[in-house]
Specification:
This protein is globular. The protein is α/β, with parallel strands linked by helices. The chain has a single domain, classed as Aldolase class I (TIM Barrel, Alpha-Beta Barrel). The protein is 42% helix and 16% strand. The termini are close together. It binds 1,3-dihydroxyacetonephosphate. The site of 1,3-dihydroxyacetonephosphate (13P) has 14 residues, from strand 8.
């Protein structure tokens, strides 16, 4: 199965910087045997839709309102995201959980709202350093997944990618061992098996994210049970991101 490689630009790049990035990216673009997804700032979505027309690269947003359009100044709805070219949206990133106090209940609403509007979801989960140090990694993952996916139908899991991102590995240059990731993925799939079915557990796509670079990308992408990777800062340079993609295909 083709590996999934996701870039998360976070709050980086103006529209014209994204344009320069995509020009460089597309100049070296090949028909990769990977599923590529670029998670861009809102202000770059329409431009990317235009520039990536006909290319096998999906566009993702990085956040969505939990409600449909109404009095919610500054928010963005699923319909708006889809209309601007997004087919995915990231939900539950640790930066939003921490800085914007998004809890599992809000994350669950955002997932439902995204699905309702035809978007696929990249659901981020992961333990903090304190969780890890107190052996609570697997318990944390279980709660995050169960609460985020509460009330979903099994067939909706086809449109969900779970991204395992240990909070302490994001932007730190530190990574868990492949064994740790394998264990975490096993426990993620076990939760899906218990709450949905063995088939759903086998089919759900799980990626790893946190301090991925060209040197370690292949190692993480090839861990048993892992379907791909989610890349933050190393995706911001098109040449480096290309090296990461090439390492995974
Ligand atoms: P880094 O790759 O910069 O550690 O970020 C990971 C991340 O948060 C992707 O969503």
């Amino acid at each position: 199965m083709a590996k999934i490689v996701i870039a998360n630009f976070k709050m980086n790049k103006t529209e014209s910087e994204t344009k320069d990035y995509l020009i460089s990216f597309l100049s070296k673009f090949e028909d990769y045997k990977a599923e590529l997804i670029l998670a861009l700032p809102y202000t770059s979505l329409s431009l990317a839709k235009f520039m990536l027309e006909g290319r096998a690269v999906a566009i993702s947003a990085q956040n969505i309102s939990e409600d449909d359009e109404k009095g919610a100044t500054g928010e963005i709805s699923g319909r708006m995201l889809a209309g601007s070219g997004a087919s995915y949206v990231i939900v539950g990133h640790s930066e939003r959980r921490t800085k914007f106090k998004e809890n599992n209940k809000v994350i669950n609403q955002k997932i439902k709202n995204g699905l309702k509007n035809g978007l696929s979801i990249i659901l981020c989960v992961g333990e903090s350093l304190a969780d890890r140090n107190t052996m609570k990694t697997l318990a944390t993952l279980k709660v995050q997944i169960e609460e985020a996916l509460k009330g979903l139908y099994e067939n909706e899991l086809e449109n969900i990618i779970i991204a395992y991102e240990p909070v302490w590995a994001i932007g730190s240059g530190k990574t868990p061992s492949p064994k740790d990731v394998e264990l975490a993925v096993k426990s993620i799939r076990k939760v899906i098996e218990e709450d949905f079915s063995p088939k759903a557990s086998e089919q759900i796509r799980v990626v790893y994210g946190g301090s991925i670079n060209p040197k370690n990308a292949q190692k993480f992408a090839s861990i048993s049970g892992i379907n791909g990777i989610l890349v933050g800062s190393a995706s911001l340079d098109p040449n480096i991101f290309m090296q990461i993609i090439n390492a995974c295909v």
